[in-house]
Amino acid sequence: MFVFEKANHNFRKPILTLGFIFLTMLTLFFDNYEPYAFTPKKEFGFNLFYSFFFNSSLSEWFTNAVYLYMFADNIEDVVGHFYFFILFIFFGVLANLTYFLFHINSIIPVIGTSGVISGILGMYFVFFPNVKSTMVFEKATFRDIPIFISLSIWILIQSYFYIIELNNQVRSVYGGQVVTFLVGMGFAQIFIRYQFLDRLEQNLRLSTFINKTVLCPSCNKPIPAKKYGRFHCSACDTNFFFDRHGKKFL
């Protein structure tokens, strides 16, 4: 199953997102990735912090790059470059540590950005629940599905795969993906609960809004507005944020 974001424009340049995509592409030119992989039974080293930049094949890199390009840019747009960098590294390390805890005696090396992407998707689930998406299965495609539905199905499938492989005693990274997704959701809730996003845009929210209306990013309904800040669209029940740069947070 694949989930594709239909449209969610960002207004801050996704410098780190594009940089991480380029960096992971460069690792494809390594002849042997095993020295850089994370292996639970070996002693901990710096590979705990960089194994998630490597991919085992061009197809794996391409899939991860597409997900980063679609979803990570919006998270970077919301939290800013610095916090996005911290979160990217944190999710990668967390995925490795989860694999270590679940398969402590494993000698199978692990690489890949899937754990990082899962954490980003967890934050996206909270920040942009009503963005429309396309779900692609092997023999069916569903369009204009709210992202909270498509990502709920996605994480349930990852959980199912983990349970199946766990029962068959197969070493997999699905457990790490589930954990990082849930932790990403938790981080996003903390950002919202403690008004972190409001503090990022505090000066902008106090500015006077000139155009008197703002369009809902989901249904384009004009909403009266006198200041920058948070808005609610009664037509589609969407909450979003608008600042002087035109930034919209669903």
Automatic annotation (TrEMBL):
* Compartments, record wording: Membrane
Gene Ontology molecular functions: serine-type endopeptidase activity
An example Gene Ontology cellular component term from the record? membrane
The keyword Hydrolase belongs to this UniProt entry's keyword annotation: yes
Superkingdom of this entry's organism? Bacteria
Asked if the Swiss-Prot or TrEMBL record annotates the protein with the keyword Transmembrane, the reply is yes
Q: Where are the transmembrane segments?
A: 12-30, 50-70, 82-101, 107-127, 147-164, 176-196
* Predominant location category: membrane
Q: Can you cite a GO biological process for this protein?
A: proteolysis
What protein name is recorded for this chain? Rhomboid family intramembrane serine protease
Q: Which residue range or ranges hold the Peptidase S54 rhomboid domain?
A: 47-192
Alphabetical UniProt keywords: Hydrolase, Membrane, Protease, Transmembrane, Transmembrane helix
Query: Which InterPro entries does the annotation name?
Result: Peptidase_S54_rhomboid_dom (IPR022764), Rhomboid-like_sf (IPR035952)
